[in-house]
Amino acid sequence: MMLAAFAHPVFDSQRNFRELLQAMARPAVPRLVPTPAAAPAPILPATMAVLLTLCDADTALWLQQPNEEVASHLRFHAGVRLVQEPADADFALITEPSSMPPLARFAHGELRYPDRSASLIVQVEGFDGNAGRRFAGPGINDVEQLAIAGLPAEFWQQRAAMSAQLPLGVDLIFISGERMVALPRTTRVLED
Predict the structure, then answer these.
(1) What is the DSSP letter of 34?
(2) How many domains does the structure of the chain reveal?
(3) What is the spatial order of strands in the sheet that 60-63 belongs to?
(4) For all residues of the chain together, what is the average pLDDT?
(5) How many Cβ atoms are within 10 Å of 144's Cβ, its own excluded?
(6) Cβ proximity of 48 and 78 under 8 Å
(7) Handedness of CA 149, 19, 91, 2 (dihedral sign)
(8) Rounded-to-5 percentages of helix, strand, coil across the chain
(9) Which of 56, 89, 119, 175 has the smallest CB count inside 10 Å?
């Protein structure tokens, strides 16, 4: 049985898109996903809302844990094209961060076209704004601090290696419960 998506597709997508823009403009600051959408497992409702807001028939999506119910749901509601290889994706959904592919396997753009890179939507265990790594860069006044629970140990080393290649890289949207946090490629992780 096909789950319903947004009750009011145009307005719900617009509300979510505005919050996504705010999340990208204010990196490392958790924001509420205003209109979650019904989702088959293992996708969280907030994650589905982000996918339905960003994906359409012109985008390619890679699923870490593909299953027929998820694929049918996304094709029906967003018309999205699913791809087999991470490097072919405009967007990638990571539902098990502990076993995610290395960041280098995703499209990270070209010097002439840095925008031809992937955005990763990563479901994580939680956020803690009083601990964790310190972030700086565009959209951050001084420093933001945030712990993102559930990422593999090598994740931050991979991101640091990719950050050295700016303007190339991937943009990240983390989802936990009904909250999201964006880390654009321009956000720096400060060393202690």
Answers:
(1) S
(2) 1
(3) 31-32, 179-183, 171-176, 119-123, 91-94, 60-63, 81-83
(4) 94
(5) 21
(6) no
(7) positive
(8) 30, 25, 45
(9) 56
Strand partners, 122: 94, 174
| 33-38 contacts, C-beta under 8 A, 24 or more apart | 33/175, 33/178, 33/179, 33/180, 35/6, 36/178, 37/5, 37/6, 37/12, 37/77, 38/3, 38/4, 38/5
Evaluate whether residue 4 is within a structural domain: no
Paired strand residues for 171: 119
Percent of the chain at pLDDT > 70 equals 97
DSSP state of 130: E
State the residue for tokens 């204010």.
26
3-state secondary structure at position 142 = coil
Instruction: Name the residue range of residue 135's domain.
Output: 9-190
Q: Please give the average per-residue pLDDT across 50-76, as a whole number.
A: 95
pLDDT of 130: 83
> Mapping DSSP to helix (H, G, I), strand (E, B) and coil, where does residue 26 land?
coil
Q: Which residue has the tokens 């640091």?
A: 160
Q: Has residue 25 been placed in a domain? A: yes
What is the rounded average pLDDT of the residues 74-98?
Answer: 96
- Which CATH number characterizes residue 39's domain? 3.40.50.11310
Is residue 146 within 8 A of residue 176, CB to CB? The reply is no
Residue 43 lies in a domain: yes
